[in-house]
Amino acid sequence: MKIVDIHSHFFPKTWPDLAEKFGGDDWPWLRHEQVEENTLIQNKYAKAMLMKGQQAFRPIYAACWDAQVRVEELDQHGIDQQIISATPILFAYERPVAQAEYCAQLFNDAAIEICQQAPGRLFSMAQVPLQDADAACREASRAKSCGHVGIQIGNHIGLRNMDDEGVITFLQHCADEDIAVFVHPWDMMAAERTKDYMMGWTVGMPAETQLSIVSLILGGGFDRISDKLKICFAHGGGAFAFLLGRLDNAWLHRDIARGKSQHLPSSYLNRFYLDTAVFDHDALQLLINKMSEERLMFGTDYPFPLGEQQMGQLIKTAPTLSDSTKKKLLADNARHFFSLDQ
Q: What share of the chain is helix, strand, coil (3-state, %, to 5)?
């Protein structure tokens, strides 16, 4: 049974000193540990600390930048193909547009270089300077022409949610050009209250994802954007599926809860996809019950510790799923969504 992982991340091994180029003291960079890299085994465990300015942000290892290491680990787990995308710290949405556009081109080209080391196995989604619709559309078109299979965007730009006019314009552009979009949470809410115990990732990230879906629905985004848009949200949509009944109930009984949407929130489930990074069989079954087996795609969040460590096992071992359903979730839906068969 073929397996396609749509949700994984990368970093280039090196990139230009952005602080030196643009000024400022909080740009991301990698501080590599000193190790010999004469063999794959040594290189596999090469490690680096992702820095934000002079502050340590996250430890990572060679799978982030080395296609050979990545493919070896995919083989160990039986993953046939994987789509890589930037880690959100690279987005630069808070920067001037010209700087964000430079970063997008820099990291998008780096992603293509990694994928070229494993043709047919690795594919990439690009990033865009989402804070400016014109620049974002321009880079999305360039990225498609360079071979990217889609665009990954963050779920907000500062205080601007997914129903922002600029985001709507960008999404319509993607619909017009048949560019798939993957929405990933970042810059999580309530940072001061979730700073301990990784709650920013375990609580804040799913909450951001739910907020992005709800804002696109209630903000009238789906009513305005062509139904040709292919859009997927990360992490199983956060709590969206579980709380959909609450959302519908509010829409039915409180005018102000309807926002600009023309239909009941549950009427829009055929307008978007979710990945399956939920780590629990009951949660996966709930997603299937709400979204249908046609609207879910396998994603791991590789190669990070909070991703699915035994890649593919959640779906493979799901006791209630037929082989036909597993096949759709593990590969068929993704191959259609990202046009991998073309």
A: 45, 15, 40
DSSP string across 209-239: HHHHHHHHHHTTHHHHS-TT--EEESGGGTT
Task: Identify whether the C-beta of residue 135 lies closer than 8 Å to the C-beta of residue 92.
Answer: no
Chain position carrying tokens 């091994």 = 13
pLDDT single digits (tens) 283-337: 999 999 999 999 999 999 999 989 899 999 999 999 999 999 999 999 999 999 9
- State the burial class of residue 38 (Cβ atoms within 10 Å of its Cβ: 0-12, 13-18, 19+): exposed
Residue with tokens 């071992």: 317
Instruction: Kindly report the pTM of this predicted structure.
Output: 0.95
Contact 287, 296 (CB under 8 A): yes
| Structural domains of the chain in order of their starting residue, each with its CATH number | 4-12+64-337 (3.20.20.140)
pLDDT tens, position by position, 15-53:
999 999 999 999 999 999 876 555 555 555 789 999 999
